[in-house]
Recover the amino acids of this structure.
DNA sequence: TCGGATGAAATGCGACAACC
DNA sequence: TGGTTGTCGCATTTCATCCG
């Protein structure tokens, strides 16, 4: 499924992705990408500047330098953009405490707090570093453009494949783009919904549109976070100022009368024009000149589609022979201000329902959302969605560049393929979600290599009604071990036999006991059984009732290399003492493994080459049994 | 103007009190 | 008494215009 609901146990770093207010220079954007390329010229420049400009935090500096030379380069927003706080009325601090300020210049000459001018080691004055906020906007836009990845769990930012291509393309130092860069960036922008929306608005306007006209339909128009001054107000005030000949007021209006949406549009326009997709033209407005009494005119900047723009729009919209581009949507783009979790969730669910259908009416979408399991979440606070609300949201989604058409039967149809994205929900927002789904949602984003059907283990481990001699929990657990974790062995089941046995080419032998209990598995009364199995395989006595041990290769040293493992959803009772007794009694390593731990260790095993059977068996038989005792460490290794 | 810059509002977060 | 909720003050994030 393209859109998934993921549950996060812990707080995740907040970072608003998709749009950027202050992004103008594409050269800075590309330079930023090169920071992620070990040994690139930009990296060398960054390191050189960090050597004298970095604040007095050697550990922080070394940590960043280390990350810069470790492939793949992974940096958090703090590593990339944090700054020393600015004091009101004083110049921004020129000392840096992150990497991007080292290569991204601000607009003014660096000043000390007392307004004196510092010099660099060569004795020259230098530009003050770009502030953290504009830098964050660059990162945010690069994520929206599919050039950078942002990992919500650990906050790491890394290059995408396209980002790497662009970072390694032929470069210039000036703002001018090489043809390689132009090609790659045009491709990126045609997957960037805002840019497509922008071009689409211009398509049928031969005379071009100014930022206010574009603002009427741009983004979630009119919402907080997408405010526009509006053409009427702006042009009206400017006409008045011109007619009264008030040049101070003219200047004031021109430089200050701009709101969020207007700013976004100017930024996107600036980039699209550098990509040759639009041209910038003057749009005249007439007024009566106060001195001459004749009609005169002033101009606003307007934007017009170029031939390249029309061509690329055709690619984005899948016209003629082209296939529609996949549009990049992030959860964070779906609302920026106010009750964001609620609104983003609703909008994401609308997209999800449309993505899963060939067309739905507003009422049908509302019904589906109201019936959705996540509707039990407190973030919905028991409210229900109406068809009218759905229609409003869809209008906004069209505004950010996702094309949702209305069919003749009043059905909404999603035209764009969407890149996979997630609806992230954190623990505090979901206190009462039932255990199974909650834990599955929590694990899902962590499991990149383990097949997600094994998430069923979570459900099976808690459902004691499923217990039988040949339980699903047992067979799935053994299937995981034998199919994915490179063990040989068998799923046995039945009386007087272990649930499962496994061994590997290193000579390790493992007895697996699984049991499903909704309230946790207690070892009390369940240790004798496993002790007997251990004795069985060591004794190899053919007179015993069960001779399951004949399946175990005789080459294995079951006296020294035998381990046992209990698998369940959770464990209760005084299991530490019972486990210790059992280990001593059998002289074997052994432990209790929750299905969560089983899945996480499996993921680590499949992810990390250095984590083999030795580490796997150690983790299955150690004393880290409760969630808090293993979770952080395992997740850190994924 | 372009390409960011900025003070302040909005929001999050830890700690500790208060309240079932 | 224990677990949840309220709140106070500080920290971080994001706005909404501002500006050299």
């Amino acid at each position: 499924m393209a859109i998934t609901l993921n549950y996060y146990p812990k707080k995740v770093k907040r970072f608003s992705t998709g749009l950027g207010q202050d992004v103008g220079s594409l050269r800075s954007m590309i330079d930023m990408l090169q920071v992620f390329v070990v040994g690139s010229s930009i990296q060398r420049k960054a390191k050189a500047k960090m050597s004298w400009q970095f604040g007095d935090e050697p550990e922080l500096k070394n940590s960043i330098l280390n990350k810069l030379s470790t492939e793949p380069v992974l940096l958090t927003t703090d590593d990339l953009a944090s700054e020393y706080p600015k004091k009101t009325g004083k110049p921004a601090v020129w000392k840096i405490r992150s990497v991007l300020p080292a290569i991204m210049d601000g607009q003014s000459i660096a000043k000390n707090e007392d307004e004196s001018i510092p010099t660099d080691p060569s004795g020259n004055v230098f530009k003050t570093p770009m502030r953290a906020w504009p830098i964050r906007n660059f990162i945010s836009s690069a994520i929206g453009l599919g050039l950078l990845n942002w990992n919500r769990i650990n906050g790491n930012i890394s290059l995408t494949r396209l980002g790497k291509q662009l970072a390694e393309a032929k470069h210039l130092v000036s703002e001018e783009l090489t043809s390689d860069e132009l090609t790659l960036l045009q491709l990126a922008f045609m997957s960037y919904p805002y840019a497509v929306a922008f071009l689409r608005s211009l398509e049928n306007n031969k005379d071009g549109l100014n930022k206010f006209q574009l603002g009427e339909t741009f983004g979630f128009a009119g919402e907080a976070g997408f405010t526009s001054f509006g053409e009427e107000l702006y042009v009206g005030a400017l006409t008045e100022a011109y007619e009264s000949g008030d040049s101070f007021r003219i200047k004031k209006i021109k430089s200050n009368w701009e709101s969020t949406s207007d700013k976004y549009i100017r930024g996107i326009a600036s980039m699209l024009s550098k990509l040759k997709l639009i041209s910038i033209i003057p749009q005249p407005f007439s007024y009566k000149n106060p001195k001459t009494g004749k009609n005169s005119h002033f101009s606003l900047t307007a934007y017009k589609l170029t031939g390249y723009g029309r061509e690329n729009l055709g690619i984005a919209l899948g016209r003629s022979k082209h296939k529609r581009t996949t549009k990049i949507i992030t959860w964070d783009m779906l609302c920026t201000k106010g009750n964001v979790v609620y609104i983003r969730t609703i909008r994401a669910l609308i997209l999800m329902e449309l993505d899963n259908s060939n067309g739905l009416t507003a009422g049908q979408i509302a019904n589906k959302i109201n019936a959705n399991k996540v509707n039990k979440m407190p973030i919905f606070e028991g409210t229900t969605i109406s068809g009218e609300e759905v229609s409003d949201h869809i209008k906004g989604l069209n505004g950010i560049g996702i094309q949702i058409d209305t069919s003749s039967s009043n059905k909404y149809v999603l035209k764009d393929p969407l890149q996979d994205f997630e609806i992230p929900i954190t623990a505090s927002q979901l206190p009462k979600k039932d255990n199974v789904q909650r834990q599955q949602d929590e694990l899902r984003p962590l499991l990149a290599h383990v097949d997600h059907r094994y998430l069923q283990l979570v459900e099976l481990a808690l459902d004691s009604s499923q217990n039988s001699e040949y339980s699903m929990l047992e067979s799935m657990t053994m299937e995981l071990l034998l199919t994915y974790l490179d063990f040989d062995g068998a799923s046995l089941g039945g009386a007087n036999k272990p649930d499962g046995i496994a061994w590997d080419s290193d000579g390790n032998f493992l007895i697996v006991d699984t049991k499903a209990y909704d309230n946790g598995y207690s070892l009390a009364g369940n240790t004798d059984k496993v002790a007997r199995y251990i004795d069985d395989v060591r004794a190899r006595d053919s007179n015993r009732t069960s001779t399951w041990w004949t399946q175990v290769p005789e080459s294995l040293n079951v006296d020294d290399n035998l381990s046992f493992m209990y698998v369940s959803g959770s464990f209760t009772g005084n299991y530490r003492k019972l486990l210790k007794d059992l280990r001593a009694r059998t002289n074997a390593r052994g432990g209790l493994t929750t299905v969560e731990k089983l899945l996480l260790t499996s993921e680590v095993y499949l992810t990390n080459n250095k984590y083999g059977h030795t580490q796997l068996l150690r983790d299955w038989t150690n004393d880290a049994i409760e969630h808090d005792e293993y979770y952080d460490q395992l997740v850190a290794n994924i």
In short: The first strand of chain A starts at residue 3 and ends at 8.
